């Protein structure tokens, strides 16, 4: 019991350190989060750019390696421009892209596994014109919920395998296979700490969103015309804070679990 409490406290300390890192230069981390959102969410969702999603998966480890370099520099109060960070990453670029390729192949495998389920969802959406709004909601819940659960279960192994892998390649000089094995080992060994930190960060961001909703509703009593715009802006801001804190948590957990990383 005491060991479990100690491990939970470690996870909570990671959250505190992540928040402290964010507070140092919040504007910088919000811009980083905006870049993450733009590259990996917004651009691939544009009509005609869906194929770019494959490229984003490929370059994801490179982005994470640069982001972790930025967090490390912030922690040790070292100033470094983006060009210098890229020069540091360049010798490991091939290994990082290979990690991205491995992730892309896993994404394609998941797509194949879920292809039948996605087809069922598409067919139910085509029939929505023949249904009432309540029936549409019920149909979406019945068809999408099992698929969402399958998706989460299928992506957990990928998250465990790549959570630390980009940093192990960039900072420790590991090969792709060694970085994946070490990421899995580190994630499993510190599962309690990481779960506690993730749950706390998630609960915190949900609280922020609920607070934003309350503010927007109060504002609606004064200026109803701008309430919806305010709500959108506040939720978008909460999303950026969440991404920035999750990236900080990714760095802090890596730093504490793999202390042997060279201070390059």
Can you walk me through this structure?
The chain is mostly helical and 264 residues long. The protein has one domain (2-257). Helix content is 86%, strand content 0%. α1 packs across α11 and α5 packs antiparallel against α8 (165-172). The longest helix has 34 residues, at 224-257. The two termini are 38 Å apart.
Please give a handful of descriptors for the protein shown.
single chain, mainly alpha, 264 residues
Chain-averaged pLDDT = 84
Helix content: over 70%
Taking the alpha carbons of the first and last residues, their distance comes to 38 Å
H/E series, N to C? HHHHHHHHHHH
As for the number of domains, it is: 1
Which structural class is indicated by helix and strand composition? mainly alpha
Uncertain stretches of 5 or more adjacent residues: none
Query: What is the C-alpha radius of gyration, as a whole number of Å?
Result: 21 Å
The number of helices is: 11
For the sheet with most strands, the description reads:
none
Number of strand elements:
0
- Work out the strand percent: under 5%
């Amino acid at each position: 019991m005491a060991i479990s409490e100690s491990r939970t406290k470690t996870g909570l300390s990671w959250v505190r350190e992540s928040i402290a890192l964010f507070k140092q230069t919040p504007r910088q981390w919000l811009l980083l989060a905006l870049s993450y959102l733009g590259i990996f969410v917004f651009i691939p969702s544009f009509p005609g750019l869906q194929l770019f999603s494959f490229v984003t998966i490929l370059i994801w480890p490179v982005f994470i390696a640069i982001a972790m370099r930025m967090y490390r520099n912030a922690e040790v109060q070292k100033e470094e421009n983006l060009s210098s960070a890229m020069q540091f990453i360049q010798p490991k670029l091939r290994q990082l892209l290979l990690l991205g390729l491995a992730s892309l192949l896993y994404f394609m495998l998941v797509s194949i596994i879920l292809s039948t389920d996605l087809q069922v969802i598409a067919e139910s959406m085509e029939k929505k014109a023949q249904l009432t709004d309540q029936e549409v909601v019920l149909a979406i819940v019945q068809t999408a919920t099992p698929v969402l659960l399958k998706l989460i279960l299928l992506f957990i192994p990928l998250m465990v395998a790549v959570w630390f892998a980009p940093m192990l390649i960039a900072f420790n000089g590991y090969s792709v296979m060694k970085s994946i094995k070490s990421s899995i080992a580190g994630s499993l060994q510190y599962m309690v700490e990481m779960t506690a930190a993730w749950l706390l960060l998630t609960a915190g961001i949900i609280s922020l969103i609920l607070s934003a909703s309350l503010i927007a509703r109060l504002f609606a009593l004064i200026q109803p015309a701008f309430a919806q715009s305010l709500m959108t802006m506040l939720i978008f801001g909460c999303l950026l804070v969440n991404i920035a804190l999750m990236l900080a948590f990714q760095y802090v957990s890596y730093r504490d679990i793999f202390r042997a990383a060279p201070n390059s």
